[in-house]
Design brief:
mainly alpha, Sodium/glucose cotransporter, 67% helix, 1% strand, globular
């Protein structure tokens, strides 16, 4: 026995334990050797010590501390940019198919649930030390977790790119017609939205996507957010300039033959249920997804802590809630039941310089934002394939093929509501509900002190699953019933 104890003591002295600022010499995780005897708490066999050491090293892969330099205010600005997107254009359409009260209830609910999902994500990041979503999924669930996170974030980013290019497809023809002094009925190949989106993609977006580093394009996020604020101001102004939208009187003159019918069509509704109501929740969810950007923003936060990042998310989500609701309510009160899934497309006055200005600003903003999202998707794809070393030929081929696929989808998808619907019930649901709660439950499955939090996380997960089970069949049913109608676009 003395020899065995001495042997263990020698092995203990020779054993190298990874340095960590968070592990002190007198930590309870590592027990002491007193008077040549191994303390009963100490792990006595070599295999167990090796397992402990390997586990610690594995965690260190996600636990390398790099101090952030971004202030709280700038982090709020960055997260707000991440939240804000083309989803804002579809919120008035969602309100028109739910009514004001039901829409407000859904908007408040999704806002609060999104903030809670950010909380779960930050807890998971703190527990594992991971600051990258894909790496967090791999740390907790292994390769399947990494694949699921990659699929969800990529689908979300591709959906955002599709919606941005859809804006180009819808709005650029109108802007060109205005600049040429032509009416909306003018038709030529160079004002065909499908051709224009291809020209813009391969004339402007492709060269930017081929650059090795797109870091400088991050500066366009401020311009993009400014454009959306300008868009909101114009929507509010137009509501008071157009007291009640004239609903294509020539086509519906029989319906509007008396003033009571006209008044009914311009009267706001508070609760509505119809075949398009199913798109409301996915559209709102799509508008609030920012989860792939949360951890990178968290990693860059100066003097970062979970509490500080939670404050950043609370402020950002509240600001976007106000902006989203005001855009939806004023857009709806301008066009009522005639609002479309792309609100900007409803402002068709060819002599309105203000509308032309906001249309051009939004077009430029989304064109410059597409390469940033594309760069993220391509980088994730190379990371998944473990082809991180730069290869020019592969870089060009993958970029070209992905842009071709995206353009084909933009050309053949009839309306933006289809993009919002598909992405909202799939990737948005995964990123807001299912992934954060699943990661949290897996990480804390042995922590009895967090039973209450685990119950709430389980309910959150169940809500996400129920959302998928209800929404996906309803969206498919609406496609079958409508036959993919283009909604007049």
């Amino acid at each position: 026995m003395p020899f065995k104890a001495g042997l263990e003591l020698t092995e203990l002295q020779n054993m190298t334990v990874p340095e960590d600022d968070n592990i002190s010499n007198d930590s309870n995780d590592f027990t002491e050797v007193e008077n040549g005897q191994i303390n009963s708490k100490f792990i006595s066999d070599r295999e167990s010590r090796r397992s402990l050491t390997n586990s610690h090293l594995e965690k260190k892969k996600c636990d390398e501390y790099i101090p952030g330099t971004t202030s709280l205010g700038m982090s709020v600005f960055n997260l707000s940019n991440a939240i804000m997107g083309s989803g804002i254009l579809g919120l008035a359409f969602a309100l028109a198919n739910t009514g004001i009260l039901l829409f407000l209830l859904l908007l408040v609910s999704v806002t609060l649930l999104s903030i809670y999902s950010i909380y779960l994500l930050l807890v998971c990041s703190k527990e594992t030390g991971c600051m990258v979503y894909e790496k967090l999924g791999e740390q907790v669930f292994g390769t399947p977790g990494k694949m699921i996170v990659f699929g969800s974030t990529s689908l979300q980013n591709i959906g955002a790119m599709l919606s941005y290019l859809f804006i180009v497809k819808n709005e650029l023809p109108s802007a060109i017609k205005f600049l040429m002094g032509k009416g909306e009925t003018f038709s030529a190949w160079y004002v065909d939205g499908r051709i224009l989106v291809v020209v813009v993609t391969f004339g402007i977006i492709l060269p930017l996507c081929l650059l090795k580093n797109l870091g400088y394009l991050g500066y366009t996020s401020g311009f993009s957010l400014s454009c959306m604020v300008f868009f909101l101001i114009v929507v509010i102004y137009k509501k008071f300039q157009i007291p009640c939208y004239e609903l294509e009187l020539n086509a519906t003159s029989s319906m509007l033959s008396n003033s009571s019918a006209h008044e009914h069509m311009c009267k706001p509704k508070y609760v509505i249920f119809n075949s398009k109501t199913v798109y409301a929740l996915p559209t709102i969810a799509f508008a609030f997804v920012c989860h792939p950007s949360v951890l990178p923003i968290y990693s860059e936060l100066k003097d970062r802590s979970q509490k500080k990042m939670q404050l950043v998310s609370n402020i950002s989500f509240f600001a976007m809630f106000v902006m989203y609701f005001m855009t939806a309510i004023f857009g709806y009160l301008t066009f009522y039941d005639n609002v479309q899934s792309d609100l900007l497309h409803k402002y068709q006055n060819k002599d309105d310089i203000l509308i032309l200005t906001v249309r051009l600003a939004v077009i430029v903003a989304v064109i410059l934002t597409v390469p940033v999202l594309f760069f993220t998707v391509r980088s994730s794809l190379f990371e998944l394939a473990r082809k991180t070393k730069f290869d020019l030929c592969r870089h060009v081929v993958v970029t070209f093929v992905l842009l071709v696929i995206i353009n084909l989808l933009v050309i053949f998808i009839p309306t933006m509501k289809d993009i919002f619907g598909v992405v909202g019930v799939t990737s948005a649901n995964m990123l807001i509900f299912i992934l954060p709660s699943s990661l949290y439950l897996k990480i804390t499955h042995q922590d009895g002190a967090k039973l209450t939090q685990r119950i709430w996380a389980s309910l959150f997960l169940a809500l996400g699953i129920m959302f998928s089970l209800v929404s996906i069949p309803l969206v498919i049913y609406d496609w079958v019933q409508s036959g993919g109608s283009a909604e007049g676009h």
